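User: Teach me something about this protein's shape.
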Amino acid sequence: MEAAAASAWDERHQPNGQPVGAGSPTTETLTGADVLVRCLEAEGVEVIFGYPGGAVLPIYDAIYNHSSLRHILVRHEAGAVHAADGYARATGRPGVCLATSGPGATNLVTGLATAYMDSIPLVAFTGNVATSLIGRDAFQEADITGITMPITKHNFLVQRVEDLPHIIRAAFTLATTGRPGPVLVDLPKDVVTATMTGFRYPARVRLRGYKPTLHGHPRQLEAAAREIAQAKQPVLYLGGGVIAAGAAQEVLALAERAQLPTTSTLMGLGAFPPDHPLWLGMLGMHGTPAANWAVTHCDLLIAVGARFDDRVTGRTDRFAPRARIIHIDIDPAEIGKNVEVHVPIVGDAKKVLQALLPLVEPKAEPAWLAQIAAWKSQYRLRYQTRSDEIMPQELVDRLAAKAEEHEAATGREVVLTADVGQHQMWAAQFYPFRRPRSYINSGGLGTMGFGLPAAIGVQVARPEATVVCLTGDGSIQMNIQELDVVRSQRLPVKVIIMNNRYLGMVRQWQELFYGRRYSHSALEEGPDFILLAQAYGIPAARVDRPSQLDAALEEALNHPGPYLLDVRVRPEENCWPMVPAGGAIDEMLGVEEATGAGQPAPVQEVRT
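Assistant: First, the predicted structure itself:
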């Protein structure tokens, strides 16, 4: 998938990364809105997710006259930014969204923060009042550049129509190079109605002080190779940066060359084969016992494209306490931010690993690998089935099996999107993600309402795939209006609701840490999702018995159009294991409930 995404991007750009639309100036007189559309065409943008309003009507008029740009009308601006985000996560290409001034622009804020936390390339365009009215509290005015400064990689307030080509080129350059991220371009109404002649889209832009380091320093690479050679209990730790860099093959080659047990963050799932003997599973708060114990007892931790988030590390003073740490990341600000690093390597993950691999001698540590294998075997995640209730883990497990059958029968890859909460964590634990960009979810910000519009973006980007939105009965109601986009665009998205009649993760915390005082976390019966789906013209069904589950999942996956499946699961099931907030990652609650096994025997430490 990564190769396909890169190929599609390269087709629209010259070998040096310049857009194919760059060239000599035209003699036409164009409005700012026309210039914007020409710039998007030059960048190879195919799809814009947006919602019109007064300040952007000139832009919508220009889009009306340009059939090469496909516009997806969402039903809320939050849907636009999450759909653009899903598009970007599924392809690696920048997602694009458009909103009007004031409330339209501020409705993008959560989505921009979501993309920023997960380093997703996205360009958001917002309308604004005329430049003469800025700062005067005009109707639907909001200082969106000020509001979004902390949650965008960069933003621009355009003040002259002549600056538009340079700014838009800069926006796409910033969004897609170095550490990817969202960029916002704010467009006052008089700028998009002003005219200019001699339009030319620049082949490149010079951004003062911006020059991402792509290649690791040779001495640091040599130091990393020495650390790997000396390690007796090494672990390879992957983050979302591996997927962003397209470095999955290099990661696998390194792991196999040095026999490195491998774990990942939530955002790194899909970067490593889940059935590989070296795979430990996800690390952190709801990570596997094998992954958490391996990191706790390792003597070398090799982190690639990861930022040592608190949900991964727990107590940093107890995180990999005896380990030397190698940290490979394109963002120098992340190195040493949360944990002490002994061998920092700044650079693109793919390029750094390509340079590191020839320096690493093949090796294996049989005692360490035997310990890892024992942990994996004894502490494999399990669940108890029931004849009268569907277990939430069972739903994910059966969905994974049916998705594999669906792929084999149809040749259509299944891509899963998720919202936030228990269903997201159970998917991370029980669904084997075999390819990069196959699990699309909000990691850093944890945004409820992300899953459905993100699924729209994924399906628009990848019409050949079967896109499944796994969501909760709480999360789906955050942006359920986007079902109308699924219907109107005839997108065959499958929505599967894990319906436990609670805000599941909130309820779990209230049970464990607040004396089972379920303050406002119960959703009771909630709406009738079948009737809601039917109101949007989407077929739907409900199941509440394990004996019905396989047939219902097959029907949903194989239905030629959109489909909603409401799955009633056991209401008060907890997601185990769990590291309590402020705890160390080896202090997991619920290990026995999750695995059926007790605490492990002590591990001999080999390095101080």
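Now, about its shape. The first strand starts at residue 29 and ends at 31. The chain has three domains: 2-197, 218-378, 392-568. If you'd like, I can walk through any region in more detail.
User: That's plenty for now, thanks!
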